[in-house]
Write a structure and sequence with these properties.
The chain is an alpha+beta fold and about 325 residues long. The protein is built from 8 helices and 17 strands. The protein has helices at about 20-30, 95-105, 115-120, 145-155, 180-190, 250-265, 290-295, 300-320; strands spanning about 1-5, 35, 40-45, 50-60, 65, 75, 85, 110-115, 140, 155-160, 170-175, 195-200, 210-215, 220-225, 240-245, 270-275, 280-285. Helix 1 (about 20-30) crosses helix 8 (about 300-320). The chain starts with a strand and ends with a helix.
Length: about 325
Amino acid sequence: MRFVFVMDPLSRVAHDKDTSFAFIRAAQARGHESYHCLPRDLSVEGGEAHALATPVLIGDAPPFISLDLAGGPRRLRLADVDAIFIRKDPPFDRSYLYATLLLERARRCPLIVNDPRGLRDANEKLYALNFPEWTPKTLVTADREQIHAFVRSLGGTAVIKPLDGAGGLGVLQISERDKNARAIADMMTSEGHRLAMIQEYLPAVVEGDKRVLLLDGEPLGAILRVPRDDDHRSNIHVGGRVVSTELTARERDLVRAVAPRLRADGLYFVGLDVIGERLTEVNVTSPTGIQELGRFLGSDPADKVIAWAEERARGRAARA
């Protein structure tokens, strides 16, 4: 099969951490061809989506991942490939938006992970609000006085975050007892002109933030990201350490509750962020953590993703 990965430059790919690397490695091990392209390498001509893509190879020594430049980039008609993996890291900016709109013209491809329409509809912060019974108390507003009133109603402490952030960037604790509280609200809302999300502070965050990886609504497993002693954020990107964990019975109920909506929106590979058995975010653009999960499981969950993609692509091609 031929897979196209729409992602960041390879210089940003860490061979021992990156989930896209794990997918390409698993695809290569299963005998498939993988191609790399940037969002700017997408195009539409005559109503058909194309990609100027280059074969990408995994090796056993540095740099571990490289482009096969012997034949140069190839112009691929995306309807002719077997699967497209949209793996561009956040933020979901204008460039990301345009990429998803171009990929709408690739729907004749047997499989797109994740669906471009689903990506546009699923802001990673706001999508969790589809499941209010599973989320912390949450407010989304640009009104600074409403923010301060909400923080008071929560006992004086909350978490405030931008709607377009990723990797823990911009996530701050806000307290009515802190003289910086008004400055924080001003900054996060651009003085009342930009929406922000404010959530109930969950004390369980000191024990860790659980990343639950789902494939087609079913859990591949979970990792627990534990924050440093000097930070309330547990993201790996900002220094959180990763430990082994299991899903609780309530967390499995949570997965069953969100899975039908995820499938309906074409969101097949997803990372749920869960603190104290409460859903805080739904990561759909480029979920991470599969290599860390594999090390704890002693198996390769990326191989399961590629095997699933094979089966799904063959099934859709046969029905076409």
